[in-house]
Amino acid sequence: MKLSILSEIIDPSAIPISKLNLDQKSMNVLPDWGVRHVGDLMNVGVEGLQSMRNMSRASIKLIGKRLAALNLQLPGYNEFLRDDDVSGNGEIGRCRSRSCAGDGIVRGLRDLVSQKEYEITGLCQTCQDEVFNGEEW
Ligand SMILES: [Zn+2]
């Protein structure tokens, strides 16, 4: 037991997110995206968090604060705080489809599969749903 605490002090990325005292909403969303340790949070950064459906700005702010307490800077966090007053609509990007089935704004993606699809094609969730018609690929 003592040893595991020691290793966490040496390597904060090994700390489980369950110890960060995050809000319940985050704890519902993050494990579905494979985020289990502080190191995973550092890997996804603000951009990754914003692409997660049901992840609110308040939740991201809390995560950024908790990591700051560990002397870690969540990637993109400063920019995120700077944009705080500007957007506020959860926009993470613009849909690359010229005939977007939605309103042209990418706000949140359902899961990792949709996230991967977005990285490849740049399609918003609405367009993805349109194209794949809800079928599993
Ligand atoms: Zn679209």
Walk me through this protein's architecture:
The structure is a single chain. By secondary structure, the chain is an all-alpha fold. It has seven helices and two strands; from the N terminus they run H-H-H-H-H-E-E-H-H. Strands 1-2 form a two-stranded antiparallel ribbon. The chain starts with a helix and ends in a 5-residue tail after the last helix. Zinc ion binds at residues 95, 97, 100-102, 123-124, 126-127.
Secondary-structure topology with pairs:
Elements: H1 2-10, H2 24-29, H3 38-50, H4 57-69, H5 77-82, E1 93-94, E2 105-106, H6 112-121, H7 125-132
Antiparallel strand pairs: 1-2
Zinc ion (ZN) is lined by residues 95, 97, 100-102, 123-124, 126-127.
The CATH topology of the largest domain comes to DNA polymerase, domain 1
Oligomer: single chain
H-E order: HHHHHEEHH
Average predicted local confidence, pLDDT = 86
Mind describing the biggest β-sheet? Answer: 2 strands, antiparallel
Provide the CATH superfamily of the largest domain. Answer: 5' to 3' exonuclease, C-terminal subdomain
Number of strands: 2
CATH architecture of the largest domain: Orthogonal Bundle
The value of Rg in angstroms is 17 Å
The number of domains: 2
Which percent range fits the helix content? 40-55%
Low-confidence stretches: none
| Spatial arrangement of strands, main beta sheet | 1-2
